[in-house]
UniProtKB/TrEMBL annotation:
Residues 4-73, 178-299 form the C-type lectin domain. This is C-type lectin domain-containing protein. The lineage of its organism: Eukaryota, Metazoa, Ecdysozoa, Arthropoda, Hexapoda. InterPro entries: C-type_lectin-like, C-type_lectin-like/link_sf, C-type_lectin_CS, CTDL_fold, DC-SIGN_domain-containing. It comes from the Eukaryota. Gene3D superfamilies: Mannose-Binding Protein A, subunit A. It comes from Cloeon dipterum.
Length: 305
């Protein structure tokens, strides 16, 4: 649906987990929606408001890898900082944050209202009315604290540009290792989620390895290091435990694979992110804990850059 100038939307009837919804969009050449302006927000609300039964809809926003700091995974633009407390009435806190964020965002980002689902605000206002006075008092301090964090976060993040600009450092280090693709092989170490965000913010994705030739080309560079380092790739089994897909393309990993013997093993029941693993004498694929910091490889398809 061409709801809004510059964008088209697919509004699903299907229901999926957030991760698999993201995979679905990616495999169809899209991203989960990122809402940058009130006009865009309203255009979407107009459509989903018409539904008889009210449904919930995933957007690209997430704070995976940066708890409390939300970003649009579609555009990797930050939303601001939320800090709800388990001791606090979340509805009341949410209401204050809801108001505050619209106000602060408008002021700091010159009218670009990154937030917010108005229905959520209405719900939270209603919940606030229904919550007791005592609960409100407990919350007030926390609200103040959280608001301060929002202001601070906006100040520090405002000048950054996301999504379209490739930093000079990255541009000068792109390697045309394999026909049709260029790669950025990092020296920096980050969690899988933040590595993915880093790649996206430079117009790329974490690398997806489709063929043995591509695998060999990358190994040709990273395999000569001493000591060997591990590198994140775009593979993940988030939302489909045991079935890995490339988040860079949204496609299931099938055909060529290069897993280390006994991998993937979902060690500790909690390994969902794929990497070139250095724990053995040679580098091979392994599923690992996504929050751990490793080097990573970004890939850009030629003629995108
Ligand atoms: Ca590739
Ligand atoms: Ca897993
Ligand atoms: Ca593993």
């Amino acid at each position: 649906m061409p709801l809004f100038p510059g964008s088209k939307y697919y509004i699903s009837k299907e229901k999926m987990s957030w991760h698999l919804a993201g995979k679905f969009c990616k495999s169809n050449g899209m991203e989960l929606a990122s809402i940058e302006t009130e006009a865009e927000n309203n255009a979407l609300l107009d459509v989903i408001d018409d539904e008889n039964t009210k449904e919930f809809y995933w957007l690209s926003g997430s704070d995976l890898g940066s708890e409390g700091t939300f970003y649009w995974a579609g555009t990797v633009e930050e939303l601001g900082t939320l800090s709800p407390s388990s001791n606090c009435d979340v509805a009341a806190l949410g209401k204050a944050l809801c108001d505050q964020r619209i106000e602060v965002v408008e002021e700091k980002l010159k009218g670009v209202t990154t937030l917010m689902n108005q229905k959520l605000c209405e719900f939270q206002i209603k919940a606030l009315r229904e919550s007791g006075e005592q609960q409100k008092q407990i919350c007030e301090y926390r609200i103040k604290e959280a608001n301060q964090q929002i202001s601070n976060a906006l100040k520090t993040t405002q000048p950054r540009t996301y999504g379209r600009t490739v930093s000079e450092h990255v541009a000068s280090n792109l390697m045309p290792l394999f026909p049709g693709s260029k790669y950025y092989i990092s020296k920096e170490k980050m969690s899988w989620h933040l590595a993915s965000t880093f790649c996206k913010s430079n117009g790329m994705e974490l690398a997806s390895i489709e063929t043995e030739a591509e695998n060999n080309a990358i190994l040709g560079v990273i395999g000569n290091e001493n000591p060997k380092e591990s590198y994140w790739l775009s593979g993940s089994d988030y939302g489909s435990e045991g079935t890995f897909y490339w988040t860079g393309t949204g496609l299931k990993i099938s055909g060529f694979t290069y897993f280390e013997r006994r991998q993937p093993d979902n060690y500790g029941g909690n390994e969902h992110c794929l990497q070139f693993w250095s724990a053995s004498s040679t580098l091979a694929w392994n599923d690992h804990h996504c929050h751990l910091k490793f080097r990573f490889i970004c890939e850009v398809i030629e003629n995108v850059l």
